[in-house]
Amino acid sequence: MARIVAMPGPTASTAPAGRTRTLAQVYRQFGEVEAAGSSPLYERVAVALSESDEALRAIETAPARKRHPTVILAALYDLALAGRAPALAAAYAAADGDAAADAAIDTLLRMTDLVVATAVRRQPRPNETGRCAVLYPAIAEAAHRVGANAVGLIDVGCSAGLNLSVDRVGITYSDGQSLGDQSSPVQLSASIVGDRPVPGRAMPQVAARVGVDLDPVDVTDADDARWLRACLWPDQPERAARLDAEMALAATAPPVLLHGDAVEVLPDAFASVPLDALPVVITTWSLSHFPLESRLRFLYRLEGTGAGRTVAWVSVEGVGVAPAIPTFGDRRASGHSIIGLAVFEHSTLRAEAVGRCWSRGRLLAWLAGS
Ligand SMILES: C[S@@+](CC[C@H](N)C(=O)[O-])C[C@H]1O[C@@H](n2cnc3c(N)ncnc32)[C@H](O)[C@@H]1O
């Protein structure tokens, strides 16, 4: 079996913020470095929060791991989208940074308990759209390699399960090639790196859509859907429109959502896939959230759960994160991800890296022979 490498460190969104002084620095840095250039509204609001002792004290009533700006700003935006913070909603809609800063502090101070409760209950979920441009050719390739006429998709670490609409979107690549449903309300684009096109095979029939997550998001639930929107920044209308379109499409064929640890829940997920369909497990940037030992147990579970069935696993994970998937010799933390394709058949595992991708799948290089 291929080597397994150590987990990367905690993401910014989970970093503990520490004492008030440090918290002020975290908010200032978020505004001046992370939001600057992308979100003038969040730049202004985060800096204003960093300069308000009252606001920082309110944020400090949240557990340390829930004080980061990504969670607190999303919790505030969630209140605005729910109609419970009209001044903040109006300021965001008008792209008025000064008014947004005042309204954010006012909302936080008036509704501290609600903001903190939302931050505690929810995970930040920024930018979950657009993975299908990478997944589509890899899933179609998996089905082709084992001669499957139907697949059952099992998205592990699915969050809102947007990947599970992969056969129902249209994709146009920068080399002019297209895949999927060109009349779909969701049209994605991706840039091809290098000379090789992605394989042009169509996806076979999708016989089951199953999402597995410790904390799945149900796009048919108004509160869940609003939280996904609230995790985007309020001055990024293109991202919001793309998310809305992907959520609306997913809601027309909602997946079965299985709540729990992937290793425990996978047998139920396989049981949801008809016997004449190939179970294709998908992971996109999920496994880095699993402890190293859990990643190995996940792999063994894939090998063992099929009970004689052929099973495929399509992974899109950071270099060295997906156990058993080769890495082209790339260094870890290189800034790109490896597209992996593994097939478990007749007690044999065939695992291959089929490409690289960048920017959560907006650029990809297909490298496998087909
Ligand atoms: C960074 S998100 C990735 C979400 C999605 N796959 C994507 O591409 O955006 C990681 C997801 O894995 C889920 N997760 C973490 N550990 C898990 C576990 N042991 N079993 C199932 N899901 C898990 C988290 O709840 C979270 O939704």
Polypeptide structure, described:
- Helix 1 runs antiparallel to helix 2, helix 4 crosses helix 5 and helix 5 packs antiparallel against helix 6.
- The protein is α/β, with parallel strands linked by helices and 370 residues long.
- The longest helix has 16 residues.
- It contains twelve helices and eleven strands.
- The structure holds S-adenosylmethionine.
- The site of S-adenosylmethionine has 17 residues, from strand 5.
Task: Offer a concise description of the structure.
The protein has about 375 residues and is α/β, with parallel strands linked by helices. It contains 12 helices and 11 strands.
Keywords:
370 residues; eleven-stranded mixed sheet; binds S-adenosylmethionine
Radius of gyration: 21 Å
Bound chemical compounds = S-adenosylmethionine
How far apart the termini lie comes to 24 Å
Order of helices and strands: HHHHHHHHEEEEEHHEHEHEEEE
Helicity range: 25-40%
What would you call the structural class? alpha/beta
Principal-axis shape equals: elongated
Task: Give the overall pLDDT as a whole number.
Answer: 92
Number of strands: 11
> Mind describing the biggest β-sheet?
11 strands, mixed
Strand order of the largest sheet: 3-2-4-11-10-9-8-7-1-5-6
Estimate the strand proportion: 15-25%
* Count of DSSP-assigned helices: 12
Uncertain regions spanning at least 5 consecutive residues: 1-20
Task: Set down the secondary structure blueprint.
Blueprint: H1 20-35, H2 40-50, H3 53-59, H4 69-81, H5 86-93, H6 97-110, H7 112-121, H8 132-146, E1 150-156, E2 170-173, E3 178-180, E4 187-192, E5 205-213, H9 222-230, H10 237-252, E6 256-259, H11 262-271, E7 278-284, H12 292-305, E8 311-318, E9 337-345, E10 348-358, E11 363-366
Parallel strand pairs: 1-5, 1-7, 2-4, 4-11, 5-6, 7-8
Antiparallel strand pairs: 2-3, 8-9, 9-10, 10-11
Helix pairs in contact: 1-2, 2-6, 4-5, 4-7, 4-9, 5-6, 11-12
Bound molecules: S-adenosylmethionine.
